[in-house]
Amino acid sequence: MPNIQREINKKRETTLHIAAAANQENFVKNLVNVMSSDDLKAVNIVGNTALTYAAATGNVNIAKVMLDKNQDLEKLCSGVRPLFMAAVLRHSQMVQFLYSWRKVSQWCGNEQLELFITCVKGDLYGVALDMLKANPNFATAKNEDGEIALHVLAHNPSAFVSGSQLGMTYKEV
Asked: Which of 28, 98, 117, 120 has its CA 20 to 30 A from that of 147?
């Protein structure tokens, strides 16, 4: 099968992009088996790999197949990073998987902070806490929108056990 990874639409998406976006796990597995590891690096018109599409679906099995074939896929950063895509869409299992696969320490500081704030916004507190332990400055750092993690938490009462922003329960008089 020569040229299995050719572009098949105007967005320069490949068969793998489409199969991953359609959450076609078995098809992706079979396709990846006949591809070279470099084939998985193909990007669409906005620079996204098929792994970003897999992250968007939240299907960890698809992501695992791709990363088993090419461990450097998560490092590519021409488009939306797969980990960031999963965090934005609140796919907690995918976020955990991708975060454990590749720590974000190689990302630039702004990218790390944006991921941290996105995890806090998306109630992905496990990864957010891991990131905070690695870089305590995230607790008070402002992202590009001027947001601080503590402000984001304060606007999310469900983040607190009692359901109130101050950790207090209210008693009706």
From this structure: 98
Q: CB of 31 within 8 A of CB of 68?
A: no
Query: What is the distance between the alpha carbons of residues 158 and 162, in angstroms, rounded to a whole number?
Result: 8
Q: How far is residue 98's CA from residue 1's CA, in Å, rounded to a whole number?
A: 30
Task: Clarify whether residues 88 and 110 are in a common domain.
Answer: no
Give the pLDDT score at 160: 56
CATH label of the domain that carries residue 42: 1.25.40.20
Tell whether pTM > 0.70.
yes
Q: What is the pLDDT of residue 150?
A: 74
Let me know if residue 168 belongs to a domain.
no
3-state secondary structure of 114: helix
Total of domains in the chain: 2
- CA-closest candidate to residue 16, choices 80, 1, 43, 72: 43
- Specify if 167 maps to a domain: no
Evaluate the CA torsion angle 11, 34, 71, 83 in order and state its sign.
positive
Whether 113 and 138 have beta carbons less than 8 Å apart is answered as yes
Average pLDDT, the chain: 82
pLDDT tens digits for 64-121?
999 999 988 777 667 788 999 999 999 999 999 999 877 677 777 688 889 999 999 8
Contact between residue 138 and residue 132 where contact means Cβ atoms under 8 Å apart: yes
